[in-house]
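Amino acids appear as letters; backbone shape is given numerically. Here is one record.
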Amino acid sequence: MAAAAAAATATAAAAPEWATKEPCLMGIDEAGRGPVLGPMVYGCMYCARSYHDTLATLSFADSKTLKEEQREELFESLKMNSSIGWEVDVICSKVLSAKMLKRTKINLNEISHNSAMGLVRKAIDSGVLLTEVYIDTVGDPEKYRVKLTEKFPGIKFVVAKKADSLYPVVSGASIVAKVTRDRALRNWVFDETAQNMHMNTGSGYPGDPNTIQWLKDHKHPVFGFPTLVRFSWGTCTAYFKNGVEVTW
């Protein structure tokens, strides 16, 4: 799965020609913030400001309100739409755990903020004439807006709760993020070689009985869990109590 993360953080490709000439607006949203399994994915979608009214007719909606088949269909349609640009940042479980457990800890909100700002920076560096960004909040909306504005003066930021249900450009970003995460999980290849490993993980959320059972089935007394698991989640703490003590 390292290849997916590497691809997501590769050098920005040149922006479409229209994006370098017309003022553009961007939406940003995430998928997979809460699960104990798999990557967290930040996605963005952008278009010319003059295209916004058309964008509102394309049936984009908060990805959580759509069936998987609908999300897949909409994702493929936006990929084929030459008037739309998009990008993702795939943050794998291993990276999330390392950042949240290292000596100088980086909490999930800061990781989220950095990912979103990274997408804005990548668009600007690729040549997108970005003038407005709409984003689903993480933490206090006004503090987040001020933080973004200080980082990118000259860009108008609108930070709101449930932005994915308020702004079509954020709805589109929500679909980009969700489909990317779903595909990453569907195509997951374990780094580990233990026998009897499977992907019947349930939803991946800590309260899901199928997810809890999967964690029980895949716990190792020395190595803990496969890299699919976010070791930094409190859900995992109980499983380490009976682990083998290792002296370094």
